[in-house]
Design a protein that fits this description.
The chain is α/β, with parallel strands linked by helices and 336 residues long. The protein has eleven helices and twelve strands. Bound molecules: adenosine-5'-triphosphate.
Length: 336
């Protein structure tokens, strides 16, 4: 099976990471005989300056003809790009792994958690209004169908991992909305994996007490937003975290960090989060095609990144002395 990928270099440190990492993408295509075609497109602040639109028509046409989107960080227009694409293609699941890397100190030893966050509902629907000059109201929207489909995504990931899912909610207070979310998760997950439920306040505390009690966490939009940042930090650094926005059709893969304009152009940006996002893209390609070459490519890339950390061939933000291009070179050489 072949795939077309729209590649967005982005702004700030985006282009120096993405354009230099293209040789890793080409090498993996070659090593594993992957049938992936990349088409580079403009999106973000640069595109806004040039075309008056952070997601110009020409780029949207390429995206429309692609299976996936692989994106570097974009600057001020990040929300206009990502939120728009998420909505256009109903990418309803936000997947955020928090996995520690060799030689990146954590307070908790090796951490490996995957957060599956519902991406379309909850208070982030933004249904808010003033009832009087003194009172603002925000509506929390939870549907059984959206809760069920996110639970199904959690199930798919759990079956590839330790087969354990914790559903995080606050149904003791929000009995109807969170109660419905929990019911959908129970209906999908109970009996198929080791399943438990936890209130969000307890989950936040347990993450900093003993993260090893979690494997996959499935949760609503707002709780997932907060817990995923917490989990990435526990695993070492928010700056190393990859992410995926998954729908039934197109998916978008991107690093969690932003455009980091303060260090742009200095060749010191860490490419880890972007490259781990590439590995997540291969995972989804494997899931959709069942072609083991994509699975092997994901594994080889993750191993090469681990090896760079083991041998301290890393950028200054994680205690190394390498330039971005040198770290990419090291990972390239470790691919085999
Ligand atoms: P945004 O609002 O888009 O999240 P931000 O500037 O507030 O942007 P980031 O761009 O994510 O946040 O980064 C915060 C700081 O972390 C940066 O100023 C930079 O110094 C550091 N940083 C972020 N990403 C990287 C990276 N890939 N490599 C090295 N340092 C990074």
């Amino acid at each position: 099976m072949s795939f077309r990928v729209a590649l967005i270099p982005g702004d700030g440190i985006g282009p120096e990471i993405v354009l230099n990492a293209k040789r890793i993408l080409a090498r993996l295509n070659q090593l594993f005989d992957l049938k992936i075609e990349y088409a580079e497109i403009e999106a973000g602040d640069g595109a806004f300056r040039k075309y008056g639109d952070p997601l110009p028509k020409e780029s949207l046409e390429v995206i429309e003809a692609s299976d996936f989107i692989l994106k570097g960080p974009v600057g001020e227009s990040a929300a206009d790009v990502v939120v728009r694409l998420r909505q256009m293609y109903d990418m309803y699941a936000n997947i955020r792994p928090a996995r520690s890397l060799p030689n990146v100190p954590t307070k908790f030893g090796f951490v490996d958690i995957l957060i599956v966050r519902e991406n379309t509902e909850d208070l982030y629907k933004g249904f808010e209004h003033m009832v009087s000059s003194d009172t603002a109201v925000g509506l929390k929207v939870i549907t059984y169908n959206a809760s069920k489909r996110i639970a199904e995504v959690a199930l798919r990931y759990a079956l590839m991992r330790r087969k354990k899912v914790t559903c995080v909610h606050k149904a003791n207070v929000m009995r109807i909305t969170d109660g419905l979310f929990a019911k959908a998760c129970r209906d999908v997950l109970k009996g198929k994996v080791e399943y438990n439920e936890m209130y969000v306040d307890a989950a936040a505390a347990n993450l900093v007490r003993d993260p090893s009690m979690f494997d996959v966490i499935v949760t609503e939009n707002v709780y997932g937003d907060i817990l995923s940042d917490e989990a990435s930090q526990i695993a070492g650094s928010l700056g190393l975290a990859p992410s995926a926005n998954i729908g039934d059709g197109k998916c978008l893969f991107e690093p969690v960090h932003g455009a980091a304009f303060d260090i742009a152009g200095k060749n010191i940006a860490n490419p880890t989060a972007f490259l781990l996002s590439v590995a997540m893209m291969y995972d989804v390609m494997y899931e959709r095609s069942k072609d083991v070459r994509y699975k092997n490519a994901a594994e080889a890339l993750r191993k090469a990144i681990d090896k760079a950390y083991e041998t301290e061939k890393v950028t200054p933000d994680v205690g190394g002395i390498l330039k971005t291009t040198e770290m990419i070179e090291a990972i390239y050489n470790y691919l085999g």
